[in-house]
């Protein structure tokens, strides 16, 4: 079965559209993690503070995940009741 380049490109575009919300969310999360300066209020007396809470939370999660040990569980069919 031969696949034409146009079919491959069409399939690629379909997958790209399907995954776009996920990539948009990842971009938004990265901006929060990278502590991109936000402006919440405008005006001469406004004080805008960018918290480092998202960065410290992500660092803590990454530390815990990297320190964890991988566990592999294999369930036998007899134990599952599918014998």
TrEMBL record:
Lineage: unclassified sequences, metagenomes, ecological metagenomes
Natural source organism: marine sediment metagenome
Protein name per Swiss-Prot or TrEMBL: Uncharacterized protein
């Amino acid at each position: 079965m031969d696949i034409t380049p146009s079919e491959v490109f069409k399939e690629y575009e379909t997958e790209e559209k399907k995954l776009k919300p996920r990539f948009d969310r990842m971009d938004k999360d990265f901006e929060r993690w990278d502590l991109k300066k936000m402006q919440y209020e405008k005006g001469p007396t406004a004080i805008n503070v960018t918290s480092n809470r998202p960065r410290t939370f992500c660092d803590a999660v990454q530390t815990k995940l990297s320190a964890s040990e991988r566990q592999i569980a294999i369930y036998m069919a007899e134990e599952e009741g599918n014998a």
